Amino acid sequence: xxKQKRLMMIWLGLQLAFMLLLQEAFALWVSLLFAALLLTxxxxxxxxxxxxSLKAVNVIGAGVALALLxxxxxxxVLNFMLQILLLAAMLRLLALRQLFEARxxxxxxxxxxxxxxxxxQNMLVALVITAGLFANIYSHYLLxxxxxxxxxxxxxxxxxxxxxPLWLAMFLLFPRLPPFWQIPTAKVASTxxxxxxxxxxxxxxxxxxxxxxxVEFENGVPERQLxxxxxxxxxxxxxxxxxxxxxxxSSNYRNVSQVGSPGATVINYRIIAEAxxxxxxxxxxxxLQTSANVNIAPSGLVLSTKPVSQRLSYQLSSQLQPVxxxxxxxxxxxxxxPAGNEQTLAFGRQLKAxxxxxxxxxxxxxxxxxxxxxxxxLTPPLLGANSVDQFLFDSRTGFCSHYASATALLxxxxxxxxxxxxxxxxxxxxxxxGYLAVxxxxxxxxxxxxxxxxxxxxxPTAAVAPQRILSSLDDALSAEQRQLLTSPWQRNALLNxxxxxxxxxxxYWSVWVLGFNDDNQRDLWQQxxxxxxxxxxxxxLITVLALLVIALLWWQRRERPTQPxxxxxxxxxxxxxxxxxxxxQPLSEFxxxxxxxxxxEQRQLLxxxxxxxxxxxxxxxxxxxxxLKQQLKKHRNALRRLRFGAQNT
Amino acid sequence: xSAITKTLYPLYWRLLSRYLxxxxxxxxxxxxxxxxxxxxxxxxxxxxxxxxxxLYLLGTNYQNNLILLLSYLLLSLFLLSIVLCYQxxxxxxxxxxxxxxxxSEQDIGLTLQLIAADHDDKRHQMLxxxxxxxxxxxxSQHCTSAITLNIFAGKRGKYTLPRIxxxxxxxxxxxxxxxxxxxxxxxxxxxxxxQQSPAAGIMPEQDQTTARQQVSDDTLxxxxxxxxxxxxxxxxxxxxxxxxxxxxxxxxxxxxxxxWVVVPAVSGDALERAxxxxxxxxxxxxxxxxxxxxxxxxxxxxxxxxxxxxQRCLQALAVC
Lengths: 649, 320
Hints:
The complex is a heterodimer. By secondary structure, chain A is α+β, with helices and mostly antiparallel strands. Chain A has 28 helices and 18 strands.
């Protein structure tokens, strides 16, 4: 059985797929090693169709496992586990001889398939993994089937019909346990905004067209100018780079109780965030409530309990109002001015002198950007040490982070606490599917300044390039800069359309399949219970009817025994007498013999019965059968006496 | 541990066979129906179940619906294979055609007839048959009409057939459907023929030389399922493992003077020895083509010849 090349090829293909799918978990040298192992197996299979000796495989295995163990710290526990699993499977395949070894191999493959889903939940990749699963089930079947057997489509179809409802019912109704122990997550590079903001970091991010998150709104989409998705606060400035304060990064703060102020609009929405390997999530303005899987940190930031390693869906309600100032300490933090950028600081102090009121000051900054020749560009010139000075008075060309950074410093110089906020702005609304898709290219940076007890929002980019805020980034950029954002295949309309459709499918996939959770399940049970009460009577009726039908069918089957009806009629009435009949004697003969012993009337009756019986049985005479019935009915008493007499003798 | 199982197993089997005797008393032909088929998970099935639990835990801990879906799919497959496994065995009919016969301390082959439900041979796959308490087992990939199963014969006598274990793990090896089938059939164990027979007056030297000459003339035939491996020609097997060959043994026909085989009225070891002599004498006489008879203390079989006579005489020896 194991000499079948078909089986070996299935397993080789599966392991190759595992190697590619789990690529993220492997360092380069590990991948190369696995590739070498696969190649060895492939060549031995094609040229000699033999297995390596167990000894050689053990030596290889010990060496590689040791190397992986030394690399454990770097790789992380989960990656190490995946590496060891795949290594075990590959070595098993290299030295495969026995049937039980093949069964172990199939078992490990099943587990590896499960592990692939840890790293991949994308619909298309999930399809590929499912194909791998079916290949593995097929190889499992081949191991236990007669040699050379094939699966019949009819059988597969029947099995599918049985499995499908069972499977779905389990998925929808089977209770789910909460996660009850800390599990290792894969060490994979994080995506999205980082905890530092360099002058060029957002420009790099917007060239990434991948999805950041999707949003569903309960009551329609708010206006585009309101869609400022806050993700990170940058409060430490060193003259060139903005950084998150350690206060924010320390993870010891729990869910903060939020009190909404009356009068402000509240919007409810749900966010499905893509895996980013970060804890920071997205929210509009001041979030009030969330679902249990995420926390609201101070200053309206939303954090997940652990790095988001797979798609995460959470519910939010936000008040469209700037977040409140937490403390005096927070304000002091945001007044800190690093050394350098003297020109900017002087300009800030000058503006303050001209506009003592904070709103007027902010307006003045905006009009400065609007009236002076400032340019919005994806490819600003590189800046030196005093980056803000250089930008404000020299190059005058920059992206959102340049403007945000300069504005925050100007405000600080003017004595107004200010900070840079990193997040996303806008998004593509898909009305048919009802969701807003926010991509990495919507990454944005703006400013918050302290005024009237709250952190007021101010976006200097809106002054320079209003289209960026009102429509999209593409409209704010020149044609040649737009080219930078789109790869050649994206310019093909058909491909682009296909990509869109796939994204929509992927959305449904993530809402219905990936996003199905305890709450949905509880709702479903509740609905079932309610409907069950409503349909209880109907259900009971159907059950009773079904039982009746089954009983009827059973009765009909009982009514069709092998004995002819005439025999049954007689044997029912004469059961006591017929006990004395020898097996080999025909019934009619027995009756005649019995008749000889009886009185006149009884004798006539028995002879008549015998005659009718013979006619009914051997001549298929229905008239005789009915006569027989009549006779039996008419002479019931006489026959009972006969029976009684027979029992007494 | 193994000591405990060794002592407990006969007890377990006694209880089980009491239950089975009530459920399925021996009949000439048995069709496997629901009440005769038992299904239990195999060791691999338990491992598979462990895998499902493991995946479920992985899925709940990572809050990963895809892993949960995988675990449920495998669970559905696990459950479905109960039905498939049952269907694979259900409807199969077993029948024993003829009583088995052979000499003690040898394998006795018994031919069983397998009849598929609806005469669809593909309905029953990977069938494993084995007599209870016997080592020899036969795996039949499809439902074949005749299968020879071996019983290792012990003491002489007439025995009823032990129950046959029919089992199958098809299609996924996760469950084993099995049935202990009792057929009304018996087998004869004849006394093993003695090696030498000085009483019958044959010259031993001559016998041995002719025997040696005859070895090369033994007919060789290809191994069939059920043939005793004692008859395998190992040298041939080493040369060509694909087609095993067995030797059909022929002993040379020496001459006996008397045409009556007499067993004296003794008992114990002496009787056994006498019976073995008699067995050998009967075989020699049958080969020589003469008419012969058998005189036992309590029974006399008139002179005749042919296989039927030999069988009659040997059976008389077996139950003497």
